[in-house]
Amino acid sequence: MDTRTEHDSLGTLDVPTDAYWGIETLRAVRNFPISGLRTHPELVRATALVKQAAAEVNVALGELDAVRGGAIARAAAEVAAGGLADQFVVDVFQAGAGTSLHMNVNEVLANRALELLGRRRGDYAHVHPHDHVNLGQSTNDVVPTALRLAALRMLGRLERTLGGLIDAFADKGREFDHIVKAGRTHLQDAVPVRLGQELAAYAAGLDKDRERLRRAAEVLAELNLGGTAAGTGINAHPRFREAAVARLRELSDLPVRPAANPMALMQSMADFADASAALRTLALDLIRIANDLRLLASGPRTGLAELALPVVQPGSSIMPGKVNPVMAEMLDMVGFQVLGNDTTVAAAVQAGQLELNVMLPVLAHDLLQSLELLDAALRAFTERAVRGITADADRCRRNFERSAGLATLLTPSLGYDRSAALAQEAARSGRGVLELAAERGLLGPAERDRLLADPRALTEPGRFRATNRRNDR
């Protein structure tokens, strides 16, 4: 393998000639053969945007000559557009604070800039990873800024995807709004509900989760770029911070703003905990909804089977004809992963000391993985499960009529104890509560017929009123 010799503060090493990365990246690759996982592409892209903004602003402020600065900015723009993706080779479990990732980016940009200027890779006297690409910057402000940009971009994407799921549930709520069924609490018979109400309530709950994502994004829009090593801005031009964030706002098309206190955002990673918590809460809701759908679709002959999920693949290697709710099962597994990632993010957030939190690499990996998994899972779940839900209106009607929860309708006229006894007898005999009540003269035939003719009245406040209400209580 052809190599070039590079040196750093620790000595010299031979680097592959065709590599855009350099000696510090090579040391990191040798030090951290841990997982085989690489930096998320969105974090690489965001870091490159930071470098482009920094180079352009440093040129404008007279800190960097236009030739070098222009080449660095052009190289960074190429990487931000997806170029040289195979050159970011450092494991996600690496040096604290993300120094290895940061130097991987600095070296790639330096060598690409050299190439653009017609010089050989490794000729750092002309474009240096530290002196030029990293001018006025530090790992401690660049990597948190890049993570905020990456998370903001992915939060926006997830918010739009979640909106599609909310719309799908709302559509199904309208489609099935006429279907009255047995409600269930504690997995036992309860008062009637409409199938459409159940599904529309999922949409309403997820809409609150969407609002949590928006609030998390608002917090993450504050950037500590320009704080350099400890938040004080040492080695950066006095106007660098404001100008660099303004340029990043243009390059990223994100509503970012300079941090009110850069040191605070260097010490504390709580904003990332806030974002991860919003993802955790969304995951908890999604797990609950997925499991509800699994229950409602259970069967097809011996379960609830009040609705059916689309058939997307065979469900068993041994049982012919078996079909499983695989999309809901997938969503559960993604939700579990997000819960685990949130635990890691929380542990990393509390692990900061004094002026810096060095656990940012694992925090970044888990936060961005949660964002990516949720986005992909929701897209698949929406299109391959929710939009294809069908309902068994006859089965819902039968379950409604057989539900012991209908005894609740009789308590205004019979009282709680007599209604409870009627519900217990119905459960023992397998007969309907209304049927038994009518047979015993506790419910007039006209009222029984009215209930069965307009069951929707039982699912809305004020529409159903027992004709013989007790006045002795």
Description:
This protein has helices at residues 23-31, 41-60, 66-80, 99-116, 129-133, 139-175, 195-220, 240-252, 262-267, 270-296, 326-349, 360-384, 393-402, 411-414, 416-429, 433-439, 445-453, and strands at residues 3-8, 11-16, 180-185, 188-194, 222-223, 257-258, 307-308, 390-391. It is built from 17 helices and 8 strands. It has a two-stranded antiparallel ribbon. Strands 3-4 form a two-stranded antiparallel sheet. The radius of gyration is 31 Å and the shape is elongated. It starts with a strand and ends in a 20-residue tail after the last helix. It has 473 residues and is mostly helical. Helix content is 57%, strand content 7%.
Please give the structural blueprint.
Elements: E1 3-8, E2 11-16, H1 23-31, H2 41-60, H3 66-80, H4 99-116, H5 129-133, H6 139-175, E3 180-185, E4 188-194, H7 195-220, E5 222-223, H8 240-252, E6 257-258, H9 262-267, H10 270-296, E7 307-308, H11 326-349, H12 360-384, E8 390-391, H13 393-402, H14 411-414, H15 416-429, H16 433-439, H17 445-453
Helix pairs in contact: 1-4, 2-3, 2-4, 2-6, 2-8, 3-4, 6-7, 6-12, 7-10, 10-11, 10-12, 11-12
